Structure formats: structure tokens, C-alpha cells
Amino acid sequence: MTIEENRSALIVHENGITASRVRSIMSQRGWASEICDDGDRAVDQYIRLKPKLVFMGLNLPTIDGHVAALEIRERDPEARIIFVVSNSRLEKANDAAYSSGAVAVLTTPITRSDIEQKWIIINGPIPEAPGLADLDELYPELDDEAPHPQNIETTLPDPQAILSSAAPPLPINQNFVNPKKKGKTVKILILLTLLSVTAILSALYFDLLNI
User: Quick count: other Cβ atoms within 10 Å of Cβ 54?
Assistant: First the structure.
């Protein structure tokens, strides 16, 4: 099947306007396109769709366009990748294109004539991808995998045992007299005794007066 027989393209770009523009141009040429804005997801979509062309941006989330292009080339040596970047990123795009064996580099704002002028190159031989040899080194450095917490079995002490060892058990069925209440009772008894003695002395006093 030639490139013209399978007219499908995958557009992977961080700029939605640029992606829509490329899809519109390819639609005018009779091509169906899908848009993706994530580098890692683009690799999965390429495997699923098997498109004949991939328009790739550089500044993508998860993995950048350079690494995504290498991932695609690793899975399909016949993948045709076209980088689409701004003029300010052209030098970096040329390096990525050489590394991943891209068939062309286009600059934004992209026009239909840009694709037409490079259509023969886009359909030409696919270059080698020398960057595949260093693919692992292009990934961002990741922290070492955090160690999993050790599965230490912890036996909690019996709460009843803690209470038992902290203080002696309270006596059961034992009369408990509040010291404050006991002192108050004694004072009342003394007062009653004094009143009784006073009453007796008063009675004796009146008896003596009547003699």
C-alpha cells in the first residue's frame, strides 16, 4: 500500500491552532487526521492507527517530540515523521529530525504551499534514526524508586493490661466515707452538744432565781 492509498495522518502538537491548521490542509488533500497533544499518548495512538504521516511538535507534555519520534521509529522503522515548529525552535527541530530520521521540518505559520513544496521529500526515502542508540539517555532523569515501607507487624498491648499495671484495682463493695463529709458531721454533733449544755445551764439558772 502506497502513501497515497492510505491517507491517514497523526498530528501531535502542543498548539491547538497549529494542529487544526495542519488537519485542515491535509483534509483539503483528501487525508483524514487525528490530533494528539501528548507525547506519550501519541506513541500509543500511532500503534493503534498506523498512520502514513506524523506531524510532530517539540514542546509536548510527558515526553517531548524528539523522544516521541524516536519511540515511534523504534516501533516502526517505516514511520514518516515531519516536525512542525516555530522559527525560534528550528535549530533544535533540525537536530531532532536528524536524530529521529524525520523526512521533513516545517515552520509555522504553516501553509498549504509549504506542504506541497516538500511533498516529494515527504514521500521520499526514510532516513536512518541514529538517535535510537541513545534513546534511554534522552529520557528525563528520574529519582530512584522510593523504597516500599517495610511490612513490620506491630502488636498493640492489651488496654486492660495497661490499666491493670498502672494502678492497683479499686476495692469492691467497700464503704467509702468522704473525709470532708465526716468532718462536717463531727462539727454538727459538737454544736448540738453545746446547745444541749446551754439549755441545761439556763434551766438551772432560772430554778436558782425562783428559790
Answer: 27
